[in-house]
Amino acid sequence: MHAVVVGGGIGGLSAAVGLHRVGWTVTVLEQAPEFGDVGAGISLWPNALRCLDELGIDLTQHLAPQRDGGFRDKHGRRVTRFDAAAFERLHGRPLGAIHRKDLIAALKNAVPAESLRTNTTVTEVREDGRVRFAGGELQADVVVAADGINSPARRALFPDHPAPVHSGSTAFRGVTKFPGARLSTSFDRGTEIGVLPLTGDDVYWFVSYVTRPGSELPDLHQTTRDWHDPIPALIEATPEEAVLHHDLYYLATPLKTYVKGRVALLGDAAHAMPPFLGQGGCQAIEDAIVLAHELSTKDPQQALEAYDRQRRPRSQKVVRESVRMGKLTSQLANPVAVKVRTALLKALPAKATVYIGREITGWQPPRLPRPDPPRTP
Question: Whose CA is closest to 175, among 148, 144, 197?
Fold first, then answer.
């Protein structure tokens, strides 16, 4: 059986790894000159780490477990503490952070080199499994459309479905060297700033502001200079050309199905969400392992239907929760509401914070078939 994966990001490569593991021939079509990702980090919650374990992806050298830290106000006053030890006891995995390029590399290395094609722009994806691209076409038993939030495949298969909408926020992100930084998430009116240590003294930081699409961008250095250490220093240490900026969009109108004919939408193509729960990439990895599992146990059409039944309700619920979390955290701008939120968080015991979102992060992946052990002569 042959699967064509359109898109070589985290979701597409995770799908390729899973399908290869269960015995499918896979071709990954990526339009960029090489497999990689923008220069930022990503948080990997226990649900995603369990999936990566099942896929056989070893991130030991690159994953940074998040230890001491917590929520703070802009002046650095502690609001509540993140109890990392209690979190790991509850979930069996830590909260991890990794550079996106390292995660992409680990996934890419688990797929046969001959399965990977770069510089390949897909021009058509059809329900019958035919994929056309500049210079050729392929016929697949299953097509995995993992081509991002503005998915051309989704637009072609569901032409009447509304486009992604602006979440109400814009974000800056970067990675820089900064020894000794600790995990923190800090809030002020309409602003959230996160700091996640990576390996090798790298630090991933992000800043989100409430704004309208197309409005004048806030001056990052000016608006963060009176925040607590090490936030101003982190941003100053990041070269201007390494700072990423994106308005944050999401798929506000849920799709009625993730499947059309032989095509399965996956990741942002199916359920793009705002980043306020840190679950966008995690949900794409979940999609991938469920799809691989179903295709290892059923004929393709039954497998795609089962994939849709399982993934659509859960991932769309996570989208709704992400939107809700944004309104309660980084997008909260009313000064009275901000004070009430801070008071409520301060009253919350540190050990209680590890239960927040457990329904999402506690998800367990299905088991994939294990490769046969080598025979002894």
Answer: 197
**Residue 329, Cα to own-chain centre: how many angstroms?**
19
The superfamily CATH assigns to domain 2-64+99-164+251-328 is FAD/NAD(P)-binding domain (3.50.50.60)
Q: Are 46 and 165 in contact (CB under 8 A)?
A: no
Q: What is the DSSP letter of 4?
A: E
For residue 97, pLDDT over 90 is answered with yes
The phi and psi torsions of 222 (rounded to 5 degrees) equal -70, -40
Task: Please list, in sequence order, all residues whose beta carbon lies within 8 angstroms of the beta carbon of residue 212, skipping any fewer than 6 positions away.
Answer: 166, 168
- The answer to whether 158 touches 145, Cβ cutoff 8 Å, is no
- What string of H, E and C letters represents the secondary structure of 316-357? HHHHHHHHHHHHHCCCCCCHHHHHHHHHHHHCCCHHHHCCCC
CA angle 42, 45, 50 (to 5 degrees): 115
Sheet with strand 96-99: strands edge to edge: 41-44, 96-99, 64-65
Q: Quick count: other Cβ atoms within 10 Å of Cβ 77?
A: 12
Q: What is the pTM of this model?
A: 0.95
Residue 92, phi then psi, degrees to nearest 5: 80, 0
Structure confidence at residue 38 as a pLDDT band (50, 70, 90): low
Distance of CA 5 to the CA centre of its chain: 18
- The predicted structure's pLDDT at residue 371: 58
Lookup: tokens for 186: 């800090």
Give residue-wise pLDDT tens across range 292-339.
Answer: 999 999 999 999 999 999 999 999 999 999 999 999 999 999 999 999
Bond from prior residue into 335 cis (ω within 30 degrees of 0): no
